[in-house]
Amino acid sequence: TIYSLVSVSSDLRHTASSVKTEKLKEALFDLFKSDHERLVIRVTGHLMGLDTLDPELLGNYKACAMGKWYYEGEGQKFKGISIFSEWEELHKRYHLLCKDVVIAHNSRDKERVRTLIAEKDELFTKLISLLEKAKEIYLKELKKET
User: Fold this and answer.
1) Which of 27, 38, 55, 91 is the most buried (most CB within 10 A)?
2) How far apart (Å, rounded) are the C-alpha atoms in residues 81 and 71?
3) 42-70: b (≥16 Cβ within 10 Å) or e
4) 50-109 confidence digits (pLDDT tens)
5) Alpha-carbon distance 105 to 42, whole Å?
6) Residue 137 to residues 60, 83, 126, Cα–Cα distance (Å)
7) What is the C-alpha separation between 23 and 98, in angstroms, rounded?
8) pTM listed for this prediction
9) Are residues 6 and 38 in contact, defined by beta-carbon separation less than 8 angstroms?
10) Of residues 72, 95, 96, 71, the one with CA closest to residue 84
């Protein structure tokens, strides 16, 4: 039931994010954070047999909402800022780790799954911390524009 709610909330979040408002801009990084928290839940769901994830989609770090924002949208203007550069590397690695976890699970390599999950969990903590720092920079820039 909880997993179903996560899935529905993801759909609603994506629909709501298509409406650009000032409040949405202010909450943008909170949405990015919750997207990646849901990714953790979805990978766990895959490991539990509740979902079937495509590892290639998971590994596409440019396709998630923040990836699209950073590579195709407004986020491009933040390239070159050290926090965003550091985030970019961690974000890419995080998506690739999620992909590798699913591949290892699908191959029934339990030891590799355990190793990758530990690395993924550690990286997730760092990623969320960097998102908070990037959010501060983004909000300062947003205030300058208004």
Assistant:
1) 91
2) 14
3) bbebbbeeebebebeebbebeebbbbebb
4) 989 999 999 999 999 999 999 999 999 999 999 999 999 999 999 999 999 999 999 999
5) 13
6) 25, 9, 17
7) 31
8) 0.82
9) yes
10) 71
